[in-house]
Amino acid sequence: MHRIRIITASLIFALAAALALTSALACSDDSGDLPADDATPETSVSGSNDVKPAVLLFAIGMHIEPLGSTPSALAGNVARGGNKSGADYNNGQLFNRHVKDIRTLADIIHTHQGMMTVQAQTPFTSIAIKRGDTILADLAAAGNEIALHFHEDAHLGSNADSLPSTTWCDVMKEEISLVRQASGVNNIRYWSGGNLYTGLLDAATCAGLDVNSDWKNPQEQKTASELIGVNPWRPAGASNGNDVSRFSSHDPAGSVVFLPEGDYSRTDFGASGRSETSGGDEAYFQFLKESLMKSLASSRSDGVNVFHFTVHPGEFRGDPQHPYEVINRFLTEVVDPLVASGQVRWATFSQMADAFSAWEEDNPGVDPVKP
Nearest Cα to 177, choosing from 64, 59, 72? Predict the structure, then answer.
């Protein structure tokens, strides 16, 4: 028995020595340049995991049209322009139906943790104030951005392009004041409209606006190809009719951030949803899916990337028993998985612009569109 204990102790001592030697070899400087057992050459290369994936900021914009508008008295004696459809928000039934449509759509979007940038103008705002309707305030409280949609002919008359930018500024301020009263939101930054006016940027800046998008030629219902893409910039100047060369050029000192709508394959995408030749709601949202995926593929990991599409009250209703189900399905099947994977992130238009401004501070002198 004594002999067995001696042999056992010797074995234990030998095993301990072997383990100590192995540990010493593993910790020696000579083995420091070898990858760990569970590492690969790819993961051990410095910086290889530092590349950020591209993220696409996503939103839905809503245009509330100036149904039943009259030009502002600030514009002087001008010829009436604007809505020619005969629809009028002074019709209480139409106003109530569109308010219900807006709430229904907002609720659907919120169930997907999303938000809209809701762009309003008279007469919708003035009627909401008169009736005490809190639709815009409720939307703002739920996280949506409240902004200005500006149909220049509706508020400035059919000869709006001939008026000075100071008049545009005054009428824009008047419209913004009504948006504020109707919504309770003081900081109105975004606007859409006035795309062919040479003094647009001056007028908007004067009115306190600094974010713009949804550019299309109202005469052709098309977007200039130079303005299609996913990376924001600061326009060097307003467009001059069909000439968008200054508007599509980046000026680091520009006062307005322009948000392109995405990498669309057609220049008529802004109006195609309401076109009789688009194939209906299903075909349009299939086109949106293709455009979203194309925009994601075009996104840069070292820049700010944006995508959005625009809806109107009463649009894309589809099945009367399930209003806006086509949008709900699009968000469920297409957008939600991309958000879950981190490739897409919801943002309002002003949040997109703020992300771009932050990027500019971190990348001074870098062209945001052509790095």
Answer: 72
Residue with tokens 């902004």: 147
Cβ partners under 8 Å of residue 55, min gap 6: 299, 305, 342, 343, 344, 345
Walking along the chain (371 residues) 10 residues at a time, the average pLDDT comes out as 39 39 38 33 38 90 96 86 78 97 96 97 98 98 98 94 97 98 98 96 98 91 90 96 91 97 81 58 92 96 96 84 90 98 98 98 91 62
Rounded CA gap, 117 and 261, in Å?
A: 13
At 233 the three-state DSSP class reads: strand
| Cβ atoms of 284 and 268 closer than 8 Å | no
Helix (H) / strand (E) containing 59: strand 56-63
CB atoms < 10 A from the CB of 337, how many? 11
pLDDT of residue 84: 62
Tell me the pTM: 0.84
Residue carrying the six token digits 């939101």: 185
Element (H, E) at 359: helix 349-362
In sequence order, which residues have a C-beta less than 8 Å from that of residue 135 and are 6 or more positions away? 99, 102, 103, 128
Q: What are the counts of helices (DSSP H) followed by strands (DSSP E) for the chain?
A: 13, 8
